[in-house]
Design goal:
The chain is α+β, with helices and mostly antiparallel strands. It is 27% helix and 29% strand.
Amino acid sequence: MGGVIFLVVMLLIAWVVVILPQQRRVRAHRSLVTTLHEGDEVMTTSGILGTINSIDDEILNLEVAPGIELRVVKGAIARRMGPVPVDETPAAIDEPDLADGTDVVVDAGVETADTPAASTTDE
């Protein structure tokens, strides 16, 4: 009985470690491929950079240099280059206040607490 439980636990761990992350990568790639538009700058899985000129059902024309186009299968697109479209930009992060009710102020790269400073002069 203990051996069966061990086997089930090992299969569950293998599923979480191996299969689940792969499913997430496949979903992310499928989402990328379905959101491609003409004019997007992309990189193929082989590292070729270019701009999409036209898209068919499974094939797209990728301009890699002025006047040079490659026909590429959509599945060969690894990622979109350049700025992230506005609808995919993460929401602005709101920094919480400090526990004592003061706000954090960033000035010239230095973080300080926005509280009255105590005099620290040495006399």
